[in-house]
Design brief:
613 residues, Spore Coat Polysaccharide Biosynthesis Protein SpsA, Chain A, eight-stranded mixed β-sheet
């Protein structure tokens, strides 16, 4: 801490801190300082917000009694030579559930350690809800899981590993969700890890259902709950997919249900055991898992007749899906507003013209009143290039109006709004973005942007940060994986920056283009929200990469700017509470910073607190 404080006597750091304060405000600044001096402690967070008091348990039991729908959960647990203390802890965590309507279906897969049969037999005799089958031979986790599945009589299947634990309110929370959404087919929760001493760490506070993210990582994992009839309909677990058998099962059920029937509970309802050799530590400790994951993902797309290419990324733990381009490639109209500063525009154009491997595309430069001779001369030269169209629109600066006007001159069925202070890095940036925009369900696509110092400028936008929206992982190192690899994985988000924003032309016209009341700030966020309101997806891909020299050609906003404050109020009036509930984020994560750190306190409600005693 002393080193940190001393470091802030460095003039450069002082200037940087002042600029941050001006741009983001006092609240965000104090949050940043607090977590620099005192890094967020998950154990403290747990003590404050995730420990049930005696009164809480009484309220939960009363709530359960009054539930109109009380489904039975069949917990499927394959067992093989589980250490004695972990096996007992796992079963005890089920027996300790406040919600009583469950059965624990255990299939021992030919364990050779004597204590396993002894423990399972004792528990079976202790509680009639515990069912045990002892398999004669070891067939692997898929076969053992299917054996457990055959014993299940409940309406829903809950997957639980033999050495993990679930908190005592886990099944209650799932039952509560089903009372609200009885048509749900898949329910999943947030999760954390638990070490050999029972210490909890590394919480994963997940987004709501996010198909693209799910194809890069098993977003569902734990606690995973599935409608039993669908588990049986798809044939249960498949042998040969050990290590990814639950992901494979989830993919096959996802295919026969619909997104609105996949529910996420933003509470930690599963503790994943971390020990030597555990997949919870690293997929690299079980190399066969990678092969099983590849097969599961590839099979999913084969069943849809989509010829994708898969790449194992981020130390082998995650996946990139390369989607095919259509046979007839759409014309992309790249729209670049500009004013003066020839060298900025020239760098941008050179990067597009020299590095871009995609065709066909056209470039439309909208000059917003340049008066520097060098820039005027440069624009005249550009107008002679067949691929480039220069239009002059000398009105008071209004980003929304300028881009809306450019639409009249664009011929493409795909629009790409691009800032003049950007610079292409990845030659296949347009191929990557187009491969997503051509999907019928997608309305807009965003890219990954870096500052010139190779830190992240944009890895998607999270609604609610700073009152309206903020860039995820801003100032993180370029190669940082961020929060559970979310800087590295394609995913659905609520919004992306207009600095590099691809939109279907028909969708842009359908939502009325950019809102011209938002002259400078948040017009891109507003556009994305309107697109989502029409039922289209916003996709962010980290595989289309550019530099963004943010603020070079226009001054940056500060919190005390009257126009900026007006646009903040306009967004809050227009979208209200929607801004505070981003489905791509989590209410247990902060809105005071862009780093996915913990919220103190979280914004998620504890349903039992509304129950009167």
């Amino acid at each position: 801490m002393f080193t940190f404080v001393l470091g802030y006597f460095n003039p450069r750091k002082i200037i940087k801190a002042i600029n941050f304060l001006k741009r983001h405000g006092l609240k965000a600044f104090l949050h940043k300082v607090r977590f620099k001096l005192f890094p967020a402690d998950y154990s403290l967070w747990v003590k404050l917000y995730d420990v049930l008091r005696k009164e809480d348990k009484i309220r939960i039991k009363k709530h359960i009694e009054n539930l109109s729908y009380k489904p039975t959960f069949s917990i499927i647990t394959p067992v093989y030579n589980t250490p004695e203390k972990y096996l007992s802890r796992a079963i005890d965590s089920v027996i300790g559930q406040l919600y009583p309507h469950w059965e624990l279906c255990i299939a021992d897969d030919g364990s050779t350690r004597a204590h396993v049969k002894k423990i399972l037999t004792e528990y079976q005799q202790k509680d009639s809800r515990i069912k045990v089958t002892f398999r004669n031979t070891n067939g692997g986790i898929s076969e053992a899981s299917n054996t457990a599945l055959h014993m299940a009589t409940g309406e829903f299947i809950v997957l639980m590993d033999h050495d993990d634990e679930i908190p005592e309110h886990a099944l209650y929370m799932v039952a509560l969700e089903l009372n609200k959404y009885p048509q749900a087919d898949i329910i999943y929760s947030d999760e954390d890890k638990i070490d050999e001493n029972g210490n909890r760490k590394e919480p994963y506070f997940k987004s709501d259902w996010n198909y693209e993210l799910f194809m890069g990582q098993n977003l569902i994992t734990h606690l995973g709950v599935y409608r039993a009839s669908l588990v049986r309909k798809v044939g249960g677990f498949r042998k040969g997919y050990e290590g990814a058998q639950d992901w494979d099962l989830a993919m096959r059920i996802v295919e026969i249900t619909s997104p609105e029937k996949i529910r996420h509970i933003p509470h930690i309802l599963y503790h994943w055991r971390v020990n030597l050799g555990s997949t919870a530590l690293s997929i690299n400790q079980k190399p066969h898992v990678r092969e099983a994951q590849y097969k599961a993902i590839k099979d999913h797309f084969d069943r849809h007749n989509i010829p994708v290419t898969l790449e194992n990324i981020v130390d082998g733990n995650y996946w990139r899906v390369r989607y095919p381009l259509p046979q007839v490639l759409p014309l992309v109209s790249i729209i670049i507003p500009t004013k003066n500063k020839k060298h900025i525009l020239e760098k941008c154009l050179n990067s597009v013209l020299q590095k871009t491997t995609y065709t066909p595309y056209e470039i439309i430069i909208v000059d917003n009143g340049s008066d520097e001779p060098a820039t005027i001369e440069f624009l005249e030269e550009l107008s002679k290039i067949e691929q480039i169209k220069v239009i002059y629109y000398p009105v008071p600066f209004n980003f929304s109006r300028i881009n809306n006007h450019a639409l009249k001159h664009a011929r493409g069925s795909v629009l790409l709004f691009l800032n003049n202070d950007t610079e292409v890095i990845s030659p296949d940036w347009l191929e990557e973005m187009v491969s997503h925009i051509v999907k019928p369900e997608v309305g807009a696509v965003g890219a990954k942007l870096y500052y010139p110092n190779d830190t992240i400028q944009h890895a998607g936008v999270i609604l609610g940060i700073g009152g309206v929206a903020g860039h995820a992982f801003r100032h993180f190192e370029r190669n940082s994986t961020g929060y559970f690899a979310r800087t590295m994985l394609t995913q659905e988000l609520s919004a992306v920056t207009g600095a590099c924003l691809m939109v279907k032309r028909e969708v842009f016209e359908e939502v009325g283009g950019f809102d011209e009341q938002l002259a400078v700030a948040f017009n891109d966020i507003d556009l994305c929200i309107k697109i989502r309101q029409k039922g289209y997806k916003i996709i962010w891909t980290p595989f289309a990469q550019l530099y963004h020299h943010e603020g070079i050609s226009r001054s940056r906003d500060t919190v005390d700017n009257p126009r900026f404050q007006k646009e903040i109020k306009l967004m809050q009036q227009k979208w209200g509470n929607l801004l505070m509930n981003d489905p791509a984020y989590n209410p247990n994560l902060t809105l005071d910073a862009e780093d996915f750190s913990l919220a103190f306190p979280p914004r998620v409600k504890k349903p039992w607190e509304e129950v009167s005693l």
